[in-house]
Amino acid sequence: MPRVRFAPSPTGYLHIGSARTFIFNWLYARKNNGTMILRLDDTDVERNTQVSIDSIFDGLHWLGLNWDEYYRQSERLALHKEMAYAIFAKGLAYRDFTPAHADEEEREGEAGPWLFNAGMRELSAEESDRRAAAGEPFVLRFRVPRGENRAVKFKDSVFGDQYKKADEIEDFALLRSNGMPTYHMASCADDVDLRIDHIIRGQDHLTNTFKHVLIFEALSETKPKFAHLPLLIAPDGAKLSKRKHGPVVSVTTYRDAGFLPQAYINFLCLLGWSPKNNREQMSIAELMEAFSFSGVNRSNAVVNFSDEDPIDPKAQWLNGQHLRSMPVNDLLPAVRAVLEAAGLSADEPSFAFVVDTIRARYTTLHDFATKGRPYFADDYPMEPAAAERLDEPQARELLRELGVRLQAQTEFTEASVEKTLRDLAAEAGVKPGILINGSRAALTGQAVGPSAFHVFTAIGRDRSIARLKMV
RNA sequence: GGCGCUAUCGUCUAGUGGUUAGGACGGGGCCCUCUCAAGGCCCAGGCAGGAGUUCAAUUCUCCUUAGCGCUACCA
């Protein structure tokens, strides 16, 4: 039973790249009957904000993906320190009393990697203990094995075998001089304690993994498997950042733009992963079934947006696909919500029929409240193109007459309306198109939309007649 | 600078030592049709560059280039 975790650091909003990482973890866990853990990596007290934590929860709740266990690193600091000192006790770490940033300038322009502060690594145990006891601040560093033949290796489920000479890895910090664990220490300590067995995260951690392997080996007999995901980048090749690219990087932007969560999840999955059978539109269940690391790509994926169109066209297309193909009843709550937010009401018995009639031409939920307004309210704009239809010769008087005739009939179906309309057109000697297109214009204020006869039944008998008479 | 990862249409991707290099979005066209969508069909568009191995390289190797990541007492 796999145990996986999503471990965001709450220093911003929920980034779409983070959301995708969550999704892949979730898919893997659910497919294999595993456990999904949400862990807030909030050890950086300076930069953590409640707003950010709220944003992460907001985004995750919207996506509708759940987790089974929840932890906050800030509540587990004692454990991290304990594990750091366990490493120290094994002789695999040492105290470095060098003041912070003391040799920053020396490091710059250095040909190779900085490995450690000379002298500190080989300080005698007695002197180290004495200085510590005297209250001198120190950072606890991992004692990376040295020597030509020493290497660290691991197998990545996406990137394959990874290998690095130990001499290329610096003696990284485990504990800061204020006693707080570093990211590497806290993350690995928690992964060990929570028995995470597959770490699925962004590729930006690929090279950090060598350090993590060292910590895992120092802490336990088993180490987790790793899967690194390609990054999501902007069209300019840079990584997505709020400051540079704006709201496109935030998950809530897509929620607010009227996306269906399952459609957005579908879109995110297709960035850097492929089911390899040309499938594009997939449900959550289908994604879960198809997910595997062998389908994960190794190169970064561009989220295709521009100033004119801030949302990836493929995401929009996919949303439209889900919108029109999902069971209509599953769609109704979301539509009802956007209508209510726009001050429109959706309580009619024909609601499902109306939604089903108009959804094929919409791409976001917002379209129901904007383009769909005439179906849910009596005050709606008359578009110029629609007005032109009404201005056709005889159009207005015939439409009013149509209203009269429909009122005289008790039957009101697509077929009955069509017959009445066509009979009237024939009598008047005009093309049926005049009345057909005119009806759509009269009933919706729009020149384009569903088949006119569908519009009649969607708008309903009384309102249709009233609108015809008003032209 | 050092180390690492990556490189197929504009974008997301499939794929192979011999393929007309496949699909999707977007773009163009046609069909359908009461309009607009949807749907169907068609078109344009790609293996970063250079060597090497081979009868044959987009595919394997090397180099170059480019992008990204790491190189913190950030995560």
What would you say this structure looks like, in words?
This protein has helices at residues 16-31, 50-63, 77-89, 104-107, 125-133, 183-193, 209-219, 242-245, 251-256, 261-269, 284-290, 313-325, 328-341, 351-358, 366-369, 373-376, 384-390, 395-408, 414-428, 432-444, 452-459, 461-469; strands at residues 3-6, 35-40, 69-72, 93-96, 139-142, 151-156, 160-165, 173-175, 198-202, 225-229, 232-233, 301-302. 36% of the residues are buried. α2 (50-63) links the parallel β2 (35-40) and β3 (69-72). A 3-stranded parallel sheet has the order 1-2-3. By secondary structure, the protein is mainly alpha-helical. The protein starts with a strand and ends with a helix. α13 crosses α14 (351-358) and α19 packs across α20. The chain binds one RNA strand of 75 nucleotides through β5, β7, α6, β12 and α12.
